[in-house]
Amino acid sequence: MGELLNVENINVYYGAIHAIKGVSFTVNEGEVVTLIGANGAGKSTTLQTVSGLLRSRTGSITFNGENISHIPTHKLVNKGLAQVPEGRRIFLQMTVRENLDMGAFTQKSGIDESLERVYEQFPRLKEREKQIAGTLSGGEQQMLAMGRALMSHPKLLMMDEPSMGLAPILVDQIFEIIQSLHKAGTTILLVEQNAQKALRVADRAYVLETGRIVMSGTGKELSASPEVQKAYLGG
Amino acid sequence: MEFLSYLISGISLGSVYAIIALGYTMVYGIAKMLNFAHGDVIMVGGYISLIAMMNAGLSPWVAILLAMVVCTLLGVLIEGLAYRPLRAAPSLAVLITAIGVSYLLQNSALLIFGANPKSYTPIITGTVHLFDGQLSISYVSLLTVAACIVIMVALTLFTSKSKMGKAMRAVSEDKAAAQLMGINVNSTISLTFAIGSALAAIAGVLLCSSYSTLMPTTGSMPGIKAFTAAVFGGIGSIPGAFLGGLILGIVESLSKAYISSQLANSIVFAALIVVLLVKPTGLLGKYIPEKV
Question: What is the DSSP string of A125-154?
Answer without folding.
Answer: HHHTTTSBGGGS-HHHHHHHHHHHHHTT--
